[in-house]
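dumping this here before i forget
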Amino acid sequence: MEPIEVLGVVAHPGGVLVRRPELSVGVVRAVARPTGLTLELLSRVAREVAVRPPVAPRHLLPAYDEGLDLRVGWLGPDDRARWEYVVSETRSTSPTAPAVHRGVYLLPPLFDEVSLVLAWPEIGFPEAVLPLPLPSRALVAAAGTSVWDGPRVGVPVAEEFERHLADAGPLDLAVEEGVAVAAPVVLHGSADAVVVLAGVTVVGPVLTLDVLSIARGTTAVAVGLRAFPGTGPPPREEGASVRASVAEVRGRGAHLLRPHGGSVGGGSGPGRFHDRSTFVVTRPDGGVLDLLVSWPLAGLAEVRARVPLRG
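structure:
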């Protein structure tokens, strides 16, 4: 997982970039920061192609490379392709469904527009150059706020709620078909722990929430002892979660959300902890996402955060 501690601005609303018989590729997440462009892509490979792959010619790719999956790059001013390595990835295969590859790529700071290059010659997908509109340098600079310094959306909880465990949402969502409907915001935080809503995507009748739980210093050490047992004495908070707890408010009910996936790691260096979790909720009426957020293990008591949604 890429360590992210700057909010950034949504660089692309999402959706499918390529739809061909052998392959589809869509944007799950695209965030521009002064330090670079984070691009998360999901590709689906047709079963018959995966079984008997043709081969596509190489023009922008070198004659040989070490790639096995989708290659992602961009054209520089000299029209030469700069290829980027995947930062984190997941794969899934099924005898009855397309193979899925989901990868995160970190591109350099790019503004206004980039010519994105995609290639996967082993399955017969020819190199494709796609113009991708991007935010301006000024917009990216304005959104380059540290998660430690930016405003927190959450406010103290002033009322009681009926607590429930949320129903499990659909597990196999075509998230690359969705559209981003909220900018990254800090939901809750202290000097050494923050909970960030990194993205909200609408996919049909549901929303997917990308939530980061980030800690640093001694707080990161305490959380890390729970996340990676065996590295030191057990923490005192038995049963405490290594990630933030997120519940959705609907009327008088607070429905605790269960993660649909994610990743956990030590972050960008010693004394850093990052957890990224994905949650799925039914799209709320009224255009506002209403959440209760806490992270007891990191010292964050419960707050209520209301996030307006676009569209």
